Amino acid sequence: MTTAINLHAKASPTFAAKLAETQALLKRAAAEFSPITQASSLGAEDVVITHLINSLKLDIAMFVLNTGMLHKETLQLLARTKQATRAGVTVYEPVAEAVVQFVGREGTTAMYRSVELRKACCHLRKVEPLERALAGKRAWVTGLRRDQSTARAEVPLEDSSDVAAHNRTKFNPLANWTWGDVWHYIKLHNVDYNSLHDHFYPSIGCVPCTRSIALGEDFRSGRWWWENESAKECGLHVKQDNRETA
Ligand code: SF4
């Protein structure tokens, strides 16, 4: 069987140095930025970070945004992750009344009708729960990588752009990892991962907004594929001045 590991695991020449840098960054973040949390969508990058946090025994609890639209494979991995994660997992869900009102007014396929409606759905299912998840936190850890998309090409390892407004730092410890590095780590440590990755889903989100891609297609081409490239973010990684950066 073709698996994501067979297809993608290939360490870059500088993998060992990048891994050491990532480990040092996570240790420093945990020591100096408490309370700190990991934002996990249970994608390949996130399971690597969770594995690193567990193996380094760091006090970085994880949260997951359950939008109510996740694939069954993602929910299955969430259940397994809750059993295996040392620092704990908190699941945040959208406000039920807001979802009922939105779906009642716009239907279940509103996201395909306009970017505004898609962003409204993302706001109530992801952005608002994210705000609750980050309330009171000094830092968060994400799986953003520079080669995920053009919009992410300049993602820093440590992003202090939100410190002035919210006293919150964002750490992107895999910013300079390649997709091959991610899968090399998963292979090396036998890390549990979302089985959708074995079915050509590199980036996994909600069911209506995620599809499999062909070999060679752009990493993010399976997300919001009906929209222009520049619109393809859900609002989770937007700077305070409203420039979309991730
Ligand atoms: S990704 Fe799609 S289903 Fe999920 S919150 Fe955004 S618009 Fe809604």
From TrEMBL:
Catalyzes the formation of sulfite from adenosine 5'-phosphosulfate (APS) using thioredoxin as an electron donor. CDD domains: PAPS_reductase. It is found in: Cytoplasm. The keyword Iron applies. It catalyses: [thioredoxin]-disulfide + sulfite + AMP + 2 H(+) = adenosine 5'-phosphosulfate + [thioredoxin]-dithiol. [4Fe-4S] cluster binds at C121, C122, C206, C209. GO terms for biological process: hydrogen sulfide biosynthetic process; sulfate assimilation, phosphoadenylyl sulfate reduction by phosphoadenylyl-sulfate reductase (thioredoxin). It is an enzyme of class 1 (oxidoreductase). The active site is at C234. It comes from Caenimonas koreensis DSM 17982. Pathway: Sulfur metabolism; hydrogen sulfide biosynthesis; sulfite from sulfate. Pfam families: PAPS_reduct. One of its GO terms (cellular component) is cytoplasm. This is Adenosine 5'-phosphosulfate reductase. GO terms for molecular function: 4 iron, 4 sulfur cluster binding; adenylyl-sulfate reductase (thioredoxin) activity; metal ion binding; phosphoadenylyl-sulfate reductase (thioredoxin) activity. The keyword Oxidoreductase applies. Keywords: Cytoplasm, Iron, Iron-sulfur, Metal-binding, Oxidoreductase. Residues 36-211 form the Phosphoadenosine phosphosulphate reductase domain.
